[in-house]
């Protein structure tokens, strides 16, 4: 089961004209109510289909409106209340990523998640009373570990990733545009898109290798009943992840995505190999994080709600890509941020417990034992019994002695109190002395009890022998 | 055999094909990514035609003399190039065919000076090809056989073999033996490097590490490395050795990383206008290596603690003297053998690396003095790393470094006998952690924030324990110590509570069911709070009763939670057992106290 913070859904688009013309077979199947997705290997039809389970599985009959209402709505609603949210879209080019995220105007049920999120946010801005909003957007892309501002004056300028204790991870120098309407939002996104496209032709880049992040930052000033103002900030990240497709002959630029199984020709991969050997939980691995991971570190686990939309084509000729998308999505379910609580086994603490529990048990045992003894022992030894105050039929001798001690204690206490009051001594000293006195009183009592127990004998030990196994706590 | 003029043009063709394949292809346009490769392929096919068919060569092969053998080798070179060409252009089957033809042609002479290098390279490429098909085992077979061939050749012959390209060079262009050897060794380095990757994919981690190490070693020996990259790789490898508790190897990697990295500083960058960005990168990498050193010192100390502690986590003096005696006997005889196997660099370089090693031990410290030395080295690297990874700008990295610093103090405290001084060390931890925690926005750093809360709570707890121990040695507990104990306990409770509060949902409700990753910490926090309430010292009986009641509630939480969620039991078995006992016993104690409070009324 996915952690609550990261939800993963898959969406499979219908067969397109090209796939139909090639008379492709559908290899993807969904059991939507169960959130299950099945994929059949067209090269091994005798094998059972591979099965994956997600927080949602949507097939061609579903529309974006449903997806939004069932899954995305709550996440965006959270943003308007001051919690961060992130939506990832993932899948090979042509798998319906843009269709899901940007969508189409007609029919309105297929309007994309992004315009819906815009509307959702501005609707809440308009509806809220006694609240002021500042909505700002930024748009950046990550290509080959370089960050560029898609809304900046110079889209070629590489930007630096920084962290601020109060503001979290941020991109230094990234431009923010204040927006007041859905239309404005859309226009800005459009501009960014265009800059991205221009970048490709200028720099000979390949779009499927770049990630882009469109961020809506909300600052919410609310005035409560008592007239006090509160400031909350939240952001919604809309992330378009690089395509998952294997590079085809026509699109290849030499670097391939399938590095996991590929041996690299240059020694440049040596660092990756060595890093992979280190279990990074408590050791340091230089440069282990990609910019994308760092930029979204508070989205991957932690108190951000994250939605991952994995898009698929149903056709058999996309089997490999679809399978790799599903695997990726499956891994995403278990995304956890690294920090964990390191707590040390506190052996000393446990030893103390052992000691204390032993003492407590002894006291308890002693009470029960005296009960037993009173019934078992002959009259002449019965006088040696200890009867704690709680027990009925106190033995006169012991009780008398106890009473004496008590009286002495009380008398001294009264005297001390009077003295101290008279002398206007500090309260601390008073307490201290009272405590000392009580301790000595307790000591007297327990010595008395101890003596009695020693005399009353072996029975205690054998009845209440208690073995307490002391475990060392495992980390 | 081709006429001399024809031969020259053949060589020229071959050269052009190489240049197309290796140089021009990088400039190919996006929509025709393999244009130059295809061009190179055409040239190679022509050369093959001119050399005559492979069958002919084979038929003649046996009886005929040198001429035929020469032609066979030349053909093999062309087949090899065609094989690589096809692999590069994603025609794996054709590529495989050519490469196999190449090895078939060379099979009988593979141990000769003329053939061995080419044969190894062909096998390397077959290895790459199969790994691209995802058949790592097959790749492994080819690469291991290349490795074996190298070893056999070096044992039986050892003369610098010809570079494959020399078969298409005029006599006067032929390479020097030095260059030949360099190229041959490079091919073999590649074999090892590919094997490292193969073993990693096959999850033969130890073997992979060994091959990574050898690859690094060979890069140094044959000067085929970028200092910064090499240093970083060596530093990373040191971390692998740490996970295996191989401190000698780990330190050697780190010392080598320092030495090689300093070369990068000395050699001015090839471009004169070294940008600020480059400088920044260089500083960052230096700090990264420093962080690997911190982990080294920390792991060494922690490993020492582990070997020295008794069953309640205190230093065991018997164990200490036992280990000290043992150490004298062993002296590093055993290590010397191991050392030889991993030593980086030759002569001068090796000397500088060994000199760098001198600065810190690789043997587990056994007393405070030794531990302190390791601690100080670690602390120096903490300062160095923090210089680059400052709080403002590198929040996460900075905190990780400070957490390591705190951990260094913590483990050093283990070796300190004096409780007061030990307490001061923990106070240092508080002083470095608390301000960071206060400045951190939990909205963005929730998980780190939690880590800090927990560590602060634990540290206050530790200090309280020490104060109690100090107090127990006194004849009577003075009010100052008592106050100190109470305030430390309360601070510990505060941070455990802050941690538990961070688990609440936006509506401030504690979750019904805890997530796996916080289950144990949350339970432990509850358990410790219960304990701390039991520790608070008060002379006010009512207050004491209240504290006991609170304590009981926290213990009860644990017991109830595990009843409701039985799957949680295994995460906190011991604490649960204790909690159950306390839940059984506390009410009796409270009864007694109640009775004591009002016995006389």
From TrEMBL, chain A:
Pfam family, one: Kinesin
Annotated GO biological process: microtubule-based movement
Keywords noted in UniProt: ATP-binding, Coiled coil, Cytoplasm, Cytoskeleton, Microtubule, Motor protein, Nucleotide-binding
SMART domains, per the entry: KISc
GO terms of molecular function: ATP binding; microtubule binding; microtubule motor activity
Localisation: Cytoplasm, Cytoskeleton
Protein name: Kinesin-like protein
Domain Kinesin motor: from-to ranges: 5-335
Family per similarity comment: Belongs to the TRAFAC class myosin-kinesin ATPase superfamily. Kinesin family.
Positions with a binding annotation for ATP: 91-98
PANTHER family found in the cross-reference section: CHROMOSOME-ASSOCIATED KINESIN KIF4A-RELATED, KINESIN-LIKE PROTEIN
Chief place of localization: cytoplasm
Cellular compartments per GO CC: microtubule
Function: Dendrite-specific motor protein which, in association with the Apba1-containing complex (LIN-10-LIN-2-LIN-7 complex), transports vesicles containing N-methyl-D-aspartate (NMDA) receptor subunit NR2B along microtubules.
Signal peptide start and end residues: none
Highest taxon of the lineage: Eukaryota
Quaternary structure and partners: Homodimer. Interacts with APBA1 (via PDZ domain); the interaction is direct and is required for association of KIF17 with the cargo that is to be transported. Interacts with IFT B complex components IFT52 and IFT57. Interacts with IFT70B. Interacts with PIWIL1. Interacts with TBATA.
Positions in coiled-coil regions: 399-440
Automatic annotation (TrEMBL), chain B:
Major localisation: cytoplasm
GO molecular function, one term: protein sequestering activity
Gene3D superfamilies (UniProt xref): Tetratricopeptide repeat domain
UniProt keyword terms in alphabetical order: Cytoplasm, Cytoskeleton
BP-aspect Gene Ontology terms: central nervous system projection neuron axonogenesis; microtubule cytoskeleton organization; mitochondrion transport along microtubule; neuron projection maintenance
SMART domains in alphabetical order: TPR (SM00028)
Cellular component terms per the entry's GO annotation: cytoskeleton; mitochondrion
InterPro entries assigned: KBP, TPR-like_helical_dom_sf, TPR_rpt
Subcellular location: Cytoplasm, Cytoskeleton
Superkingdom of origin: Eukaryota
Family listed: Belongs to the KIF-binding protein family.
Record function comment: Activator of KIF1B plus-end-directed microtubule motor activity. Required for organization of axonal microtubules, and axonal outgrowth and maintenance during peripheral and central nervous system development.
Alphabetized PANTHER family for the sequence: KIF-BINDING PROTEIN (PTHR46321:SF1), KIF1-BINDING PROTEIN (PTHR46321)
Designated name of the protein: KIF-binding protein
Gene it is expressed from: KIFBP
């Amino acid at each position: 089961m996915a952690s609550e913070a990261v939800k993963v859904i898959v969406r499979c688009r219908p067969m397109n004209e090209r796939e139909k013309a090639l008379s492709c077979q559908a290899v993807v199947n969904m059991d939507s109510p169960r959130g299950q997705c099945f994929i059949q290997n067209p090269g091994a039809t005798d094998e059972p289909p591979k099965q994956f389970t997600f927080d949602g599985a949507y097939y061609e009959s579903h529309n974006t409106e449903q997806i939004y209402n069932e899954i995305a709505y709550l996440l965006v609603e959270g943003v308007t209340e001051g919690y961060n949210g992130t939506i990832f879209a993932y899948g090979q080019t042509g798998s319906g990523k843009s269709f899901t995220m940007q969508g189409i105007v007609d029919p309105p049920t297929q309007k994309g998640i992004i315009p819906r999120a815009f509307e959702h946010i501005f609707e809440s801005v308009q509806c809220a009373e006694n609240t002021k909003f500042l909505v700002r957007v930024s748009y950046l892309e990550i290509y080959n570990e370089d960050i560029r501002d898609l809304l900046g004056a110079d889209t070629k300028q590489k930007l630096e990733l920084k962290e601020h204790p109060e503001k979290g991870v941020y991109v230094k120098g990234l431009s923010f545009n204040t927006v007041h309407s859905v239309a404005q939002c859309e226009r800005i996104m459009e501009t960014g898109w265009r800059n991205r496209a221009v970048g490709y032709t200028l720099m000979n880049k390949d779009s499927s290798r770049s990630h882009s992040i469109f961020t809506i930052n909300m600052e919410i000033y609310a005035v409560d009943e008592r007239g006090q103002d509160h400031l909350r900030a939240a952001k919604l990240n809309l992330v378009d992840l690089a395509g998952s497709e294997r590079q085809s002959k026509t699109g290849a630029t030499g670097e391939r995505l399938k590095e996991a199984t590929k041996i690299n020709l240059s020694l440049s991969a040596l660092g990756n190999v060595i890093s992979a050997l280190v279990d990074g939980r408590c050791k340091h691995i230089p440069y282990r994080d990609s910019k994308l991971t760092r930029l979204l570190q508070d989205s991957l686990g932690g108190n951000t709600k994250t939605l991952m939309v994995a898009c698929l084509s149903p056709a058999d000729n996309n089997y490999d890509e679809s399978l790799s998308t599903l695997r990726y999505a499956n891994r995403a379910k278990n995304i956890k941020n690294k920090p964990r609580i390191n707590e040390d086994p506190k052996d000393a603490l446990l030893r103390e417990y052992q000691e204390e529990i032993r003492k407590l048990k002894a006291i308890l045992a002693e009470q029960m034992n005296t009960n037993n003894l009173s019934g078992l022992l002959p009259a002449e030894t019965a006088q040696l019994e200890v009867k704690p105050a709680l027990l009925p039929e106190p033995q006169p001798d012991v009780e008398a002695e106890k009473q004496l001690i008590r009286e002495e204690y009380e008398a001294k206490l009264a005297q001390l109190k009077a003295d101290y009051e008279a002398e206007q001594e500090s309260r601390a000293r008073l307490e201290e002395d009272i405590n000392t006195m009580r301790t000595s009183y307790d000591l007297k009592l327990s010595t008395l009890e101890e003596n009695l127990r020693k005399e009353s004998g072996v029975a205690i030990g054998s009845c209440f022998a208690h073995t307490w196994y002391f475990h060392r706590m495992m980390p | 055999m081709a006429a001399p003029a024809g031969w020259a043009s053949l060589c020229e063709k071959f050269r052009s094909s190489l240049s197309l394949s290796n140089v021009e292809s990088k400039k190919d346009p996006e929509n025709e990514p393999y244009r130059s490769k295809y061009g190179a392929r055409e040239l190679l096919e022509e050369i093959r035609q001119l050399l005559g068919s492979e069958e002919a060569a084979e038929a003649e092969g046996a009886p005929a003399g040198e001429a035929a053998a020469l032609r066979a080798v030349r053909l093999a070179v062309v087949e090899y190039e065609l094989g690589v060409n096809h692999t590069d252009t994603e025609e794996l089957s054709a590529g495989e065919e050519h490469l196999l033809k190449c090895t078939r042609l060379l099979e009988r002479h593979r141990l000769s000076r003329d053939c061995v290098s080419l044969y190894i390279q062909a096998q390397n490429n077959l290895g790459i090809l199969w790994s691209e098909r995802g058949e790592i085992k097959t790749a492994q077979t080819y690469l291991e056989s290349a490795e074996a061939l190298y070893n056999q050749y070096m044992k039986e012959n050892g003369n610098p073999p010809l570079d494959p390209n020399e078969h298409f060079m005029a006599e006067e262009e032929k390479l020097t033996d030095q260059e030949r050897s360099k190229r041959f060794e490079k091919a073999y380095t590649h074999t090892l490097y590919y094997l490292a990757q193969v073993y990693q994919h096959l999850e033969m981690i130890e073997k992979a590490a060994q091959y990574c190490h050898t690859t690094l070693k060979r890069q140094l020996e044959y000067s085929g490395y970028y200092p910064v990259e090499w240093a970083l790789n060596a530093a990373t490898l040191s971390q692998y050795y740490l996970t295996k508790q191989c401190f000698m190897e780990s330190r050697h990697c780190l010392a080598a990383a320092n030495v090689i990295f300093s070369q990068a500083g000395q050699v001015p960058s090839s471009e004169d206008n070294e940008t600020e960005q480059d400088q920044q990168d260089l500083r960052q990498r230096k700090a990264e290596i420093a962080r690997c050193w911190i982990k080294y010192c920390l792991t060494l100390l922690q490993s020492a603690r582990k070997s020295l502690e008794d069953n309640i986590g205190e230093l065991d003096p018997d164990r200490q003297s036992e280990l000290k005696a043992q150490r004298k006997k062993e002296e590093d005889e055993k290590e010397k053998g191991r050392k030889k196997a991993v030593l980086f660099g030759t002569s001068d370089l090796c000397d500088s690396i060994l000199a760098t090693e001198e600065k810190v031990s690789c043997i587990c410290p056994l007393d405070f003095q030794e531990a302190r030395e390791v601690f100080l080295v670690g602390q120096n690297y903490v300062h160095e790393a923090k210089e680059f990874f400052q709080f403002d700008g590198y929040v996460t990295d900075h905190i990780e470094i400070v957490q390591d610093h705190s951990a260094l103090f913590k483990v050093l405290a283990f070796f300190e006998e004096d409780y007061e001084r030990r307490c001061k060390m923990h106070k240092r931890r508080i002083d470095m952690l608390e301000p960071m925690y206060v400045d951190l926005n939990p909205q963005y750093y929730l998980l780190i924030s939690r880590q800090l809360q927990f560590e602060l709570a634990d540290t206050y707890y530790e200090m309280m324990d020490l104060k109690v121990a100090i107090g127990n040695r006194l004849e009577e507990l003075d009010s100052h110590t008592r106050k100190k104990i109470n305030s430390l306990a309360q601070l510990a409770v505060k941070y455990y509570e802050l941690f538990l509060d961070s688990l609440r949902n936006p509506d401030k409700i504690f979750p019904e069911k805890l997530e796996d990753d916080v289950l144990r910490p949350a339970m432990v926090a509850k358990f410790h709070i219960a304990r701390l309430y039991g520790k608070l010292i008060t002379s006010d009986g009512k207050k004491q009763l209240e504290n006991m009641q609170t304590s009981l509630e926290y213990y009860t939480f644990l017991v109830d939670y595990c009843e409701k969620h039985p799957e949680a039991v295994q995460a906190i078995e011991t604490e649960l057992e204790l909690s159950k006992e306390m839940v059984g016993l506390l009410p009796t104690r409270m009864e007694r106290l109640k009775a004591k409070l009002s016995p006389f009324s």
